[in-house]
Amino acid sequence: MKGTINKHLLPLIGAIAGDIIGSPYELKGCRIKTTDFPLFSQDSTFTDDTILTLAVAQWVVKRNSDLISLFHTMGNKYINVGFGHAFKCWLRSDSPKPYNSWGNGSAMRVSSIGLACGTLQEVLDLAEQTASITHNHPEGIKGAQAVAASVYLAYWGFSKLNIKDYIEKTFEYNLNRTIEDIRETYSFDSSCQGSVPEAIIAFLESTNFEDAIRLAVSLGGDADTQASIAGAIAGAFYKKMSQSIISEIVEKLPNELLDILYSFNDFIPPQKIMLAVTAKEDTILKCHIQYSFALAYTGVQDVFIPKATRLELSSVLISDENKYDGYATFHLINNRKTIFSILENEIHLKYPEYIKEDTCLVERILLYSKTSELEQFEISPLTMEDVLAQI
Q1: Dihedral sign, Cα of residue 178, residue 183, residue 185, residue 191
Q2: Which of 67, 143, 231, 361 could form a disulfide with 14 if both were Cys (CB 3.0 to 4.6 A apart)?
Q3: Which residues are within 8 A (CB) of 349 and not within 5 positions of it... i.e. 6 or more apart?
Q4: Residue 323 burial (CB count, 10 A)
Q5: Closest by CA position to 121, among listed 323, 306, 270
Q6: Which CATH architecture has domain 7-266?
Q7: How far apart are CA 153 and CA 210, in angstroms?
Q8: What are the residue ranges of helices labelled H in 186-320?
Q9: Residue intervals in the chain for CATH 1.10.4080.10
Q10: pLDDT of 309-355, one tens digit each?
Q11: Mean pLDDT of the chain
Q12: What is the distance between the alpha carbons of residues 245 and 60, in angstroms, rounded to a whole number?
């Protein structure tokens, strides 16, 4: 790999690594039920997962390009790398239409979307857009959204519990299983509903990037695609993988595919996040308060946040390789009057001289917490109602 690898490239490398590592174990007779296998062999090669992952990465950077044309151009050039029959027919059509697929092809190509969006809603919208040109079945769209959202949350430093809870609640996937339990009876399944949850579980159960890949392959199913999905999320979460894996990927990709990968490395992703969180229980957040009678914010104070309070998560400091705990900042959406009123009652006691002059003593508060404390909240997209509530 030339130059410095930016952390937003690791999920893409992770997706491609999973595809190449899993490729020898996809076909019947080659599937395995163990994590003890060589990562690379002479049979390890990129497949359709890599081609379409890079096509979406090209598209998501430019946004004004035609994704169908990109799929057609790249897909037809590499048509013999493992595309399914229905997708091959779509590639060969002069007027390609969605074909109501629920296959996991929609889910394995969306890792770049989780890196290129600032808002969770945009992640869901773009994932649906990339899926629906072929996989317009609700399960096909759901699989793409679940993977893109997992990459997004992992990249921004949310915990595995945050990711698990959001995916379960939003997409109704059962993630309360272990790889060992699944592996015993699991067989090849290329549907989103039968392979995406298992690939996400491989990530959730993993201890590092390579472990996620090995767990996904060990299911004995659609190994390249499930390892690609698990690898994308693991790359976003761990933000670290061995140089030997990266070197193998570079060695096995032709120059024109490497050029697309390198161009995404130069892409500047959003620097701020925007979504909503809701307190699961009563909690305490740190804050700075600005009073109406003061120009500057106060020092650090604690603020009581009642259960069900909804907040806009406006920024997260991303930690490198999970070496330190970053900070998240919030703005109140609901329960604002209640919280302001509690604070103002306290201020009346502290500053009685301002009672007559100011009926509203708290002008604004800035809330924040460690990112590890985000497990106290449920995650959801920020809605227009949320925005209006803050005006």
Answers
A1: positive
A2: 231
A3: none
A4: 8
A5: 270
A6: Orthogonal Bundle (1.10)
A7: 20
A8: 192-205, 209-217, 223-238, 243-252, 255-266
A9: 7-266
A10: 999 998 887 665 555 567 899 999 999 888 888 888 777 777 666 65
A11: 92
A12: 25
